Structure formats: structure tokens, C-alpha cells
């Protein structure tokens, strides 16, 4: 009878050990889960309100950042790289507290005039967790958007070209119209002659003075803008609108591009064929971006940003203006100010 009692005790001891081991395993597993389940000090998410649009439509692209109160964050610079998309509007809400953490959001209203499949590249957000002084970086996910062209015609497949249709010729009607047109032109010429005579002018128009160079007109307009009271009276939007218009008029006179009729993105695309020198393209891009944000996104630059914008405009004109060069052979040639400066330095070195 003792032997069975010993065996029962042995098996009972083994059973207790197994239960204890299972309990320890569950405890440590739950403890590890709690450690890894702790929230990261910073998290970021991005979303778009629609992934398929037609050309010219707008998309609302929102980036939300959630972080602890002691965390310092740095958002991307204004005019962040959004690939093929242009920023039409910009809205940054005030931080709000949710469950003991701060939530910040930036919403971009973007659009593009190209068709195809595009992606919004990741935006990089930097953060610092005191007392740690090292800046860490966090990126949003890239998002895909398909831009379709306008709906094609529903009439069916392509049809064969019809044969040309010839109008019957009525020679009497043609001669009558020609006679009337000749009489109208003759009367218009006589009227123009007497109108010029009454004004004391000759029949032919007077010779006009040649137009001033585009850079002289632009620099004079910039000087008047700097001396104006737009900034002093708080008319920030009017100041940046005038600054952008001066540069666009200069581009029309300098490069013969209809800059006043184009969006900033279209203007930069049209200027790709122009050999802009010494960072002039980047100066123009930065100036147009901040001007568009002020005009369309209600952005209010800091007071120290106004001189920077004016310097970008003035430097762009000074860098790209045309100057006349007279080399040793006596033949006068035209070049940009940047090219002339480089040529002068090369001559001095030689």
C-alpha cells in the first residue's frame, strides 16, 4: 500500500511543477506584452479624401501627428515636396489635447493638371525627446492617386473621314461682297487720314522710343514697392501679390513667356527650356511658393521673412538680366549678368 501512495505523491509533485511553469510563462508573456504595448512618444499618419480624381480636381491631403507633451517636433518646410501636385490651399490647426497627448494636423489642398498614376512622396517630420538632444526622424507613408482625363465621347468608335464638301460658288455674291469691303476700307482710310490731320499728325504713325529693358522696369517697380507702406499698414497679401506680379511681368518681357496667365507650376514647367543660371530657378520657385501661400492659403509670414522674399525677387532679376558684352574682337554680344560675371572672372584669371 505504501508504493501506490509514493507514486501518487510523485505524480502530484510533477503536476505542481507543470502548473507553476505554466503560470510563470503566462506572467512573463503578459509582462512582455505590457512593455511592448506602450505607445511610442511620437506617431504620424497621413490620408487623402479620395484616391481617384479627374484632371483639375482637388484632393485634401491630411497629416496628423500625435506626441507626448514634452516632445519637440519640427514640421516640413512650407511648400514641401508633394511630387507632381501643387499646393492650392494650406491649413494648420492649433494643437489639441487628446487622452493626455497632443494632436497636430496639417491639411493641404492639392491638384495637378497631368494625367496618370502619381504618388505623394513621404514627408519627413523631426522630433526630439528631452533630455535626449538627438533629433529623430519619422516619415509618412507614400500615397497613390490616379488622375484620369475627362470622360471620352460616348458616340462610339472612330469613324472614317468624310469626303470634303464643296460649297457652290455664287460669283455675283462674291463680287458684291468684295465691292462692299473695298468701299468700307476706302472710307476707313479717308476717315483715318482726316482724324490724324485734325490732331496735327502725319498719315504715318510717329516713330516711338524703343521699349525699356525688362530688368530696368522690374528693378524700378521693386524700388517703389520697397518704399511703399503696404507692409507698415499690414497689407501683407497686397504686398506679395504686387511682388509676384512684378516678377511675372519681368519674365514676360525677358523670356516671352505668358507668366501672368500661368499658375506657378505651369510657369516653372515652361521655364525648363530656358537656361536659368546660378540657382535662379530655385530662387524663383521659393518666391512663387511663399507668394502663393500668402495669396491663396492665408499664410502670414513672420516679419523677418519679408526682406528674404524681396531679396529673392531682386536677386532673380539681377542674375538673369541681359547685359551687352564687347569682347576683344569688337563684336557686341548679349548675355545674362551671371554669364558676364563668369566671363570677366575668367578673363582676369587668364
Describe the model.
By secondary structure, the protein is an alpha+beta fold. Strand 12 and strand 13 (333-336) form a beta hairpin. Among the domains are: 42-148, Immunoglobulin-like; 214-321, no CATH class. It has helices at 2-37, 171-198, 214-227, 236-255, 264-270, 280-296, 305-320, 337-349, and strands at residues 42-48, 52-54, 58-67, 72-74, 86-92, 96-98, 101-111, 116-120, 124-128, 136-139, 143-148, 322-325, 333-336. The model is unreliable at 1-7 and 29-37 (pLDDT under 50).
Helix count from the secondary structure assignment: 8
Spell the H/E element sequence. HEEEEEEEEEEEHHHHHHEEH
Radius of gyration: 36 Å
Largest sheet, strands/sense/barrel: 5 strands, antiparallel
Give the amount of beta strand, in percent.
15-25%
Separation, N- and C-terminal Cα atoms: 117 Å
Stretches where pLDDT falls below 50 for ≥5 residues?
A: 1-7, 29-37
- Alpha-beta classification: alpha+beta
Task: Give the number of DSSP strands.
Answer: 13
Helix content: 40-55%
Overall form: elongated
